[in-house]
Amino acid sequence: MRSKFLMLTVMLLTASSFVFAQDDYAPPQNYTQPPPPNNNYRNPRNRRTQKQQPEQVVSGKPSGYVSLNFGAANPMGNFGNVSGTTGYGNYAQAGNMYNLSAGIPLNHSNFGIALMLGQCYNPFDLNSYMSNFVNSSSVQATLAPATLNSSTGTYGPNPNYSSPGYSETHFMAGLFYTYPMRRFSFDLRGLIGVMACSLPSVSVLIGPATAGDISDEFDIIPNQSSVSAFAYDLGGGIRYLLPIRRRSTCLMLDADILQASTKYNVTDTHTQYNPPLNTYNGTGTITSVTTSNISGTQPISLVTISIGIGIQFDTK
What we know:
Shape: elongated
Mean pLDDT: 83
Structural class: mainly beta
Helix content: 10-25%
Number of helices: 4
Low-confidence stretches: 15-25, 53-57
């Protein structure tokens, strides 16, 4: 029994040595040992095994923004009317605008708060105003004899006094709604606030056909350089998330309706010279000065279209 056990043990050892010999075979006779590794040599990386950076995923969650926008401010309604001559105001032309705005969704929702600080400028159509003003019946009835007796009168602005332009500064806050769609976000907002408006001053010179002579001067100057009023804004826009700066930069296209109603109080001073004042040598005397006050309400109504760049952020 013992001899059979010894024989079985020898056979198992022999078989196992044969198996290991297949895995760890001896090198061929002409085999030479490889040189030691060069520590300065850098083995090329296997592209298949190289760890790839995970692709950034565009969030579908509602996002907020802070942006700076520039664009056009186009007058609507009576604000751009160029036919009125009995009062003061209107005659606004297309201008420019810029604003700093923000939209902040709350509690992971599509709703939030919106803020806007902006500036608009609209030139005053001085040429149309002067033409209508001088040819109105109320002004014609007050002109100096030298102007009335002239076959053709000349008129123009006084560069020392004319400041033809509306400058509107507004600060507003309100509600904000956003709807994300991959890289795009569609925004709506409604805001209320205050607008400070700088009103134009106008000085019109009228004289005979002789160059340089002035018979009448009308100075129409607001008693307050800036007036304030309640304002509101309704607008919307599209944001596009750019694949730069860790996906936080966005381009914006916005459209808004901005409206306010300001009260004005201006002083109209009519100065007559007879004989006509010569602007070159200063000859001429003042024969009469008439002062009147004009008050009323000036509607400010603008459609603004702007493009901008902003920083977009996800709500926490």
